[in-house]
């Protein structure tokens, strides 16, 4: 059973704070790590897909790093805004011929104005 | 461009009833999958398909069947609904077996089994 864990489970910050979350995944048989943003009453939307150890991706104020050797990825949000309030999901894809993309439980971020 | 379309949006079933959740995509994606979302448990993979005629089990397949007769459609069947299947169901598709391409999600189906 693949174990993908995210921490913290929830986070409350003030507008303007910078924050980061962690996604832990199996360090063996790695192929890809996805990050998604999920707003209430909407569907998850992709932020990043990362495949190489040391990868860094950036989209506006959001960035992510990847360490496949130790099995973790960080998602950073710089200068949080209320519109960043959402649940952030990571998903792990292992190598091999199976097509399973396994999600973590998510980190729910609430940004207070 | 419709993307991934799920129907119905809401459904109430009685224990023991059967039904099919529909999922269609118009992006010519090889990969399609079904997830269920329960409070505190994120998204759990039910079944997935890497192409027409090919399906496989995910993390929580019991009680559900799927088929993939065309590239566009990937229906999810509940053979005998149980209260434990009350959940929000998401269909998602991707190119390249979700290796390095992101998933595109439908809007979800909220199912209640009484």
Q: Can you give a write-up of this model?
A:
The complex is a heterodimer of chains A (113) and B (114). Chain A has no helices and eleven strands. Chain A has strands at residues 5-7, 10-14, 19-24, 30-38, 45-50, 56-59, 62-67, 72-77, 86-94, 101-103, 107-112. Chain A is globular, with a radius of gyration of 14 Å. In chain A, strand 9 (86-94) and strand 10 (101-103) form a beta hairpin. In chain A, the strands form two sheets. In chain A, strands 2, 4, 5, 9, 10 and 11 form a six-stranded mixed beta sheet that branches. Chain A has 113 residues and is an all-beta fold. The N and C termini of chain A lie far apart (40 Å). In chain B, 39% of the residues are buried. In chain B, the strands form two sheets. In chain B, strands 2, 4, 5, 6, 9, 10 and 11 form a seven-stranded mixed beta sheet that branches. In chain B, strands 1-3-8-7 form a four-stranded antiparallel beta sheet, with no helix packed on it. Chain B is an all-beta fold. The N and C termini of chain B lie far apart (36 Å). Chain B has no helices and eleven strands. The model of chain B has no long low-confidence stretch (mean pLDDT 94). Chain B has strands spanning 4-7, 10-13, 19-25, 31-37, 43-51, 54-57, 64-66, 76-78, 87-94, 104-105, 109-113. The A-B interface holds A 1, 31-32, 34, 36, 43-46, 49, 51, 89, 91, 93, 98-106 and B 31, 33, 35, 40-45, 48-50, 56, 58-59, 90, 97-108.
